[in-house]
Amino acid sequence: MTAAVIDGKAFAEGLRARVADYAATFEQSAGRKAGLAVVLVGDDPASQVYVASKARQTVACGMASFEHRLPADTAQADLIALVDRLNADASVDGILVQLPLPAHLDEQAVVERIDPAKDVDGLTPISTGRLALGLPGLVPCTPLGSLMLLKDRLGSLSGLDAVVIGRSILVGKPMAQLLLAENCTVTIAHSRTRDLPDVVRRADIVVAAVGRPELVRGDWLKPGAVVIDVGINRLPPAEGEAKGRLVGDVAYAEAMAVASAVTPVPGGVGPMTIAVLLRNALVAAHRNAGVPLAEGAL
Ligand code: NAD
To answer: For a pocket test of ligand 1, which of 6, 144, 171 has the largest count of ligand atoms closer than 8 A to its C-beta?
Structure first.
């Protein structure tokens, strides 16, 4: 048996097209474009690439993009003052502070300062609490994108056994909450989990968000499981390669021989993250402007 490849790139394209349609009708109703502000502190090359790509895709979807690039030695008070200005700016519907911040800055304090109505990354205590309570709110992009791929593949997830490997604030914990809300029986595994292969073997759904190249092997999987590989790991370059290959947290070829469907790396969960960010910004825009948006429209 060979598993189906879950094409996150194609799904993300479709989501971005829907976002663009709704962004156009939003502009007509609200008399302004939906706006997303991205704040980048310092000159980390990977973050620069992400921020440029976010800005480009925001504009391509017909939304306004506000980029704020601050020097690496920015003071905490100045960053907080910028977040306050963006909170107060009615043309800004979503605020994303690109993480990680330089070490001298208090990341938690900056995130907590973001108005929860504009928290498109879903990382403020209010957003996190609303997710835990099952209340509507903004949800972190990568786990929400992973859930969209799962629902697209499986329809109802009710009653399925799901194992999430990783318990980060950004991916593992919100992923587990989302699966619980879909009535899965959820296990969260992590670095201290005993006999991880045995835990994974129970799962109808495996979400790997670890950051360890090809940790999850084919013989850990229940035949027919659906595997969402969130990990993005760059291997050391092989002979003659300028850059090492990108691999996920799952041994892809092995998983393809056992599972029923697997997300590839790259081209699986990765493209979903920015598409969901744009979706979150547009959902926030509707709420902030009081423009109705049908439940589940995006
Ligand atoms: P993190 O380092 O914050 O968390 C990793 C988690 O894995 C921890 O909870 C830890 O307990 C667990 N873990 C570590 N070693 C383990 C082991 N041997 N066995 C079981 N669990 C173990 O990482 P994160 O931010 O959650 O990201 C995880 C991965 O997902 C990374 O590769 C990251 O690059 C990737 N990621 C991808 C996207 C995307 O857009 N696709 C977004 C965010 C993160």
So the answer is: 171
In the structure, which protein residues have their CB atom closer than 6 angstroms to any atom of ligand 1? Answer: 142, 165-168, 170-172, 189-191, 193, 196, 209-212, 215, 230-233, 269-270, 273
Same domain for 109 and 192? no
Split at pLDDT 50, 70, 90, the class of 1 is confident
180 in the same domain as 77: no
Domain count, the chain: 2
What residues have CB less than 8 Å from 263, skipping those under 6 apart? 5, 6, 8, 149, 227, 228, 229, 248, 269
7 found inside a domain:
no
Please report, for the domain that includes residue 212, its CATH number: 3.40.50.720
Distance CA 122, CA 40 (A): 17
Average pLDDT, the chain: 97
Predicted TM-score (pTM) of this structure: 0.97
Does 192 map to a domain? yes
Give yes or no for residue 61 having a pLDDT over 80.
yes
Q: Which two tokens stand for residue 21?
A: 């349609």
Instruction: Determine the structural domain holding residue 82 and report its residue range.
Output: 30-119
Choosing from 33, 54, 118, 173, the catalytic residue is 54
